[in-house]
């Protein structure tokens, strides 16, 4: 039998299907329990810059089911909200939304290493993935190895951290993932930006500067 592009015995296929169904049911229950509590919190969420000397790397994924692809969006900014680098990518893919987000986080980690980034806070709206990397929450067997690999990277990089933010505060990475729907391969910008995110970056920089001035006035 063929499952997820691989030839496997019927028993392995059935076991994988049962594992996937169990994870889906557990994720759904977890989501229903927190849905009502989070509505107002999400409305109040906005992107915030990291501390001075820290780079914040936001990531997001979009699944293109008709074309069996995942679209990646990654963006890095400094404490003033200035853009350091961004990336859009398109890859062949078949799997869950959590797997898509995990793959995007993994690429973000690789990119930071390639660019020799230091003192990095990774931030995304995939709460289960963030918890999975931290060793918390529900972890599907099919993603356990990937989570182990990411945890291993974090252990060896004490200057890295992982943070969750609602979609409302992850707008630039989300827009980059949408942009990747119209491209093939991978494209990276260093200290430049694709036109699709210009307005969002400027708006969030303005909000950041305004808040900093207000805090300064109070002090």
TrEMBL record:
A Pfam entry, by short name: RVT_3
InterPro entries linked to this entry: RNase_H-like_dom_plant, RNase_H-like_EbsB-rel, RNaseH-like_sf, RNaseH_domain, RNaseH_sf
Domain named RNase H type-1: residues: 58-180
UniProt-recorded Gene Ontology molecular function terms: nucleic acid binding; RNA-DNA hybrid ribonuclease activity
Protein name: RNase H type-1 domain-containing protein
Provenance organism: Juglans regia (English walnut)
